[in-house]
Amino acid sequence: MSMDVYEQIAVKIISGQEAIIGPVAVEQAQRVSNLKVNWDKKEVEVGGNKVKVIEDLINKYKELFGQISVEVSKQAAAGLMAQLPANTLQEVLK
Fold first, then answer.
1. Model confidence band, residue 46 (pLDDT cutoffs 50, 70, 90)
2. Through-space distance between the first and last CA atoms of the chain, rounded to whole angstroms
């Protein structure tokens, strides 16, 4: 399965969070609407408004763990952010 850039970003963010908070990172990701997580294969499917799904994922971690989780998400997704249209996700990653 070939994942698009939003799905790749979601995987990077979940992986980055998992490295710090463990399995709870995956559990939280599974609660995000329009995000289907198959973590055994390290795959996700993003449906609906893909930007909103990624924002929801980042905000889910932020609600639980504060601003530091936003920094983790930003670092995890940094290499892929250049592939997104300008200003996409900029607000949520401040």
1. very high
2. 31
